[in-house]
Amino acid sequence: MDEKYEKVKEILKKYNQEQLLIWYDKLIEQKKEELLDQILKIDFDQIEELYQETKGKKDFKDCKVEPLSYIDKQKIPTEERERYEKEGIKLIKEGKYAVVTMAGGQGTRLGHNGPKGTFELEVGEKKPLFTLLAQTIKEARDKYDAVIPWYIMTSRENNYKTTEFFKRHNYFDMGEENVKFFIQNELPMIDTQGKILVDEKGMVKEAADGHGGIFEAMRKEGITEEMEKRGIEWIFIAGVDNVLAKMVDPLLTGIAIDKNFLAAGKSVVKNNPKEKVGVFCKKNNKPSVIEYTEITDEMAEKVDENGELLYGESHILCNLFNIKAIEEIAKNKLPYHSAFKKAKYIDKNGVIVVPTEPNAYKFESFIFDAFEKLNDMAILRVKREEEFAPVKNAEGVDSPETASKLYKEYIKNRNK
């Protein structure tokens, strides 16, 4: 270990990050070993590069942005719709379809102590988000008489509690072999001087690297390899917090196959031009999403000849990928975006600092940055009240209250 310690000290000195060993002498032997291993895994050149990027704002002036065409689910002619669905159902029945749920978050914002997927939503009775999603997959499994594997991306922070939750629920009778877990990647957090933070336990302070990290995590954790062995061709990826996500969708799948695209996404119409959502678009002739922080008022309010918003297709984190696309995207890292957050840490004097204002950068990649690796993709406009009921905030917009209401209304209308 002395040799490893000296090697770490040398690296930290080179990159002026010696503060990472501030708590080292107070750690037990096992934790000392963990800390040294953690430091050796850090790409310090990458961290320096990311720090430099926090100093400049991204400029989209030289980027050609245009609306991206979409298919309105409600306006597809019956015969055409049946053709798409037949294609999709055939693939699902052949066992070539899988679902991935991104569930690395904690329920902190909802006042819930535990993985977000274990947060209970009142839908006539209280049910965890995982239970509601499992019901959707099982209904599809029974409807199409098919095995539909379910892969769950967790985080280092919540992996144990998530896997234990599934064990206690007997994997929702889907079979342990059909429910697999893999852990999201993390990146160190840095302060405004580019120094990597030390967490309250004396370890490197890390944060999940965003939902765009899913492709690399799937490759690293052997998920894509397992999918290939199972003969999986199409994978639907969605977040854990949308209780109305229609994760097994033969229509969307059939459209992607018919159009010969390697990806497809679902959209809902923006409630108003100012709604804080990312919208589908084309950037330099490639499919993409432009964030609400990037879009100008002029673009946001622009309408077509029918009076519809030109940039009105909200990205709702419901995307379908061919396994070939996932493998290709996973070969290279997606760009990282910085977010300025409040982060508790141990300072150079060994004192725990609890900030009242944002003080640190975390770095995330976004799943929609992967779209730009594709030539084109299919966008299916769906009804918000049928497929989008997110649980993000404790109250107000996209809260348990709004999601519960949407979910109950949907079930009532479906059962009519």
Task: Please tag this protein with its features.
alpha/beta, 416 residues, 20% strand, eight-stranded mixed beta sheet, globular
Tell me what the structure shows:
This protein has 416 residues and is an alpha/beta fold. An 8-stranded mixed sheet has the order 2-20-12-15-11-3-6-7, sandwiched between helices. A 3-stranded antiparallel sheet has the order 1-13-14, with no helix packed on it. A hairpin with a 2-residue loop joins β13 and β14. It starts with a helix and ends with a helix.
* Approximate helicity band: 25-40%
Percentage beta strand: 15-25%
Shape: globular
Q: What is the radius of gyration?
A: 23 Å
Treating each run of at least 4 consecutive H or I residues as one helix, how many helices? 13
For the terminal residues, how far apart are their CA atoms?
A: 67 Å
According to DSSP, the number of beta strands is 20
Biggest β-sheet strands, sense, barrel: 8 strands, mixed
Average the pLDDT over all residues and give the rounded result.
94
Low-confidence stretches: none
Instruction: Please state how the strands of the largest beta sheet are arranged side by side.
Output: 2-20-12-15-11-3-6-7
Short description:
The protein is an alpha/beta fold. The protein has helices at about 1-15, 30-40, 45-55, 80-95, 130-145, 160-170, 215-220, 225-230, 250-260, 295-300, 325-330, 385, 400-415; strands at about 65, 70, 95-100, 120, 125-130, 150-155, 180-185, 185-190, 190, 205-210, 235-240, 265-270, 280-285, 285-290, 315-320, 335-340, 345, 350-355, 360-365, 380.
